[in-house]
Each structure stands twice: as structure tokens, then as C-alpha cells.
Amino acid sequence: MRRVTLIGAALDLMLGVLKVLVGWLASSQSLIADGVHSFSDLATDFIVLFAAKHGSMEPDEDHPYGHGRFETIATVILGVSLMFVGIGIAWDSINRLFHPEMLFSPGPWALAIALLSVVSKEWIYHYTMRVAKRLRSHMLEANAWHSRTDAISSVIVVVGVGGTMLGLDYLDAIAAIGVSWMVGTIGWKMAWSSLGELSDKGLGEEQLQIIREAIMQQEGAEHVHMLRSRRMGHNALVDVHVEVDSMLTVSEGHMIATAVENAIKESDQGVTDVTVHIDPENDERAPSCDGLPGRKKVLEILSRAWKDAGVDLHWYDVRLHYLGGRIVIDIYLPDAFVGRMEDIERLEEQLKKSLSDLPDFGDVHLYAALGSRRSERD
Ligand SMILES: [Zn+2]
Ligand SMILES: [Zn+2]
């Protein structure tokens, strides 16, 4: 991939120098415009190579998300400069069309260089396409198509220069306008998409749909919401809320989060950074659990409320579920607990009743190990 890009860059450099030089010496405005086009392609290749070499996502302390945005900023600057260059050349050509005495009369060398450009660009189109197919790289495929538009750009120059040599002396200037229109359009597209990226524009709906489907295929992922994305260079960052069964353990929830993360990265949408937020319920609809007491406070409240029942929470495994704006409590009785089923049920009733006037609390469930239950049969 590096090799193809390097060959393309070398070709753009050679063609750019030749076109501007010969365009100037053999006085062809359209060839000069085409030369500027080649230099703009060279600059793009350079940005791509630079980004590839410095690993656009390599993070450090100052830039924890990597340096992809440097590429973006460089692309905005390049895009805006291309727009100005395109407008400049077009303006100059229009001016000459209105003052025919200022029109250039290009010589045969200009034609030769334009033809050389058409042939070499068409060659690199086929070469890049072959490599793109082999590596299944969409980026290289796009590069290949770009080479073909470069060839078309040079075809316009051939027509312009050839026509002028045959006596249609305004054709070179018209070709120059055509080529600078292409240069300006390339610049506009670059600047516009990179500005979108800088303003944290998200991925397209089609891409988001693919990501959503990849998430929902993961076992345990019940709903998806707050799927947000940002682009950075050639990569994208995603954060998402995934709803799971409300009673899962932390480790199972984490396992699902990791599976979702991998599925998003493997969905082929260029996502390299994923943050998954696990929801035990739909936090957009369910009452908020904000402001409910934390574990330490809860244990204090429970110890006080259950003092009469003779429950010493130190001995019990207490699990708190913050759901629907209330705290649901699971209590696992210690293995050493010896009691009959009725005792456990009675205790559970008692605990429920003593919490009934505390608005923060929901249901209470007691669980006993099989060993202690077996004791009732003894
Ligand atoms: Zn180009
Ligand atoms: Zn949520």
C-alpha cells in the first residue's frame, strides 16, 4: 500500500514539475492549471503517507485520542488553498477570454506533456486498481478513481491545447477554466468533509445502522441507545449505551460490553475507539437512581431498621440493585445459617415490612444456601 502511494506521489511530482514548467515555457494556461492539480494530488499523497507513518491514532499524554486531527487540519488548509488556486486560474482565464490579445498560443511541447500525463495517469489507475482489489482496500480504490479523473483532467488539456494549435485560440483558456473547476471542486470537498470532522459531525445513518445491527447480534445486548460517533482522520470514535438484563452480574455485563466493543470494531466502519456504557434498564425512560444513598449509607439504614429482627448484616452477603429509582435488596444468608424454610420466609416478611415506609427501598429477597435448607429435612 505504501509502495503504490509512493509511486503515485513520485509520478505526481514529476508531472507537476513538467506541466508547470512546460506550460509556462510553451505558454499553455490549461497545462499550468493541470500542473497545479498534480501538485495538489502530491500534497494529498504526502498527507496520507505522513498519517500512515506517524500512525494517525498513536496517542500520547497530550493527545489521548491520537493525532488524527492533525491530518484533518492539514486537509482543511490544503482544501482551502486549492479552492483559491482554482478560482485564481479560472479568473485569469476568463479575463483573457474577454481580452483575446492576451490569449496564449501553446506550442507542441504542451501537447506532448498533456498526452504523457493522460497515458501515465491511465496506467497508474489500472495499477492502483489491481493492488486495491488484491488488498481489498477501499481507500486505494478511491485513489485509483482519482487517478482516472486526473487522466480526464489532462484529456481536457489535450483538447484545449490541440484546439488552440488548430486555430481555435480560445480553447486553451476554456480548458484552463475546466481544469481549475476540477481543482476547486477537489479543494471544496476536502475542506467541507474535514470541517465536518472538526465540528464533530457523526457517521452517516447507513453506517450507524450497520453498527447498531452489529451490537444487537451480541448475546445479552437487549437495546441500544445514545449511539454517538465522531470521525478522526480515517478513523471513527463511538460511544454507546447498551441495555442488558437488570440482574446480570458486573462481570457478565462487562463481558457483554467487551463483545459489543469488538463487534463494533470488526463491523468495518473504520471505528478504532469504542466506549460502551452498560444500562441495567432504559435510563431514558426509567425513573432516575440519582441521589439514592450509596452502599455504606444503605447498610447503616438497614442495620437500624432491622435491629429488632436481630439481623447482623456483617454476616450476610448483601447485594443492592439500583433499579427504577429504588434500591432492591438481595440478601444471601451465610452457609452457617441454620433455619427452616418458614423461618426464612417469616424473616423476609419482617424485613420487607420494616422497610415499607422508606421511599428509597423496593423489595427484599432472602436466599439461603442449599445446605441450610437441607437442615429442615433432618
Ligand atoms: Zn487529482
Ligand atoms: Zn443509557
Automatic annotation (TrEMBL):
The keyword Zinc-finger does not apply. It is found in: Membrane. One of its GO terms (biological process) is iron ion transport. The keyword Aminoacyl-tRNA synthetase does not apply. GO terms for cellular component: membrane. Residues 6-198 form the Cation efflux protein transmembrane domain. SUPFAM superfamilies: Cation efflux protein cytoplasmic domain-like, Cation efflux protein transmembrane domain-like. Residues 204-281 form the Cation efflux protein cytoplasmic domain. It holds the Pfam family ZT_dimer. One of its GO terms (molecular function) is monoatomic cation transmembrane transporter activity. Its main location: membrane. Keywords: Ion transport, Iron, Iron transport, Membrane, Transmembrane, Transmembrane helix, Transport, Zinc, Zinc transport. It comes from the Bacteria. The chain crosses the membrane at residues 7-26, 73-91, 111-128. It is a multi-pass membrane protein. Belongs to the cation diffusion facilitator (CDF) transporter (TC 2.A.4) family. FieF subfamily. PANTHER family: MITOCHONDRIAL METAL TRANSPORTER 1-RELATED. This is Uncharacterized protein.
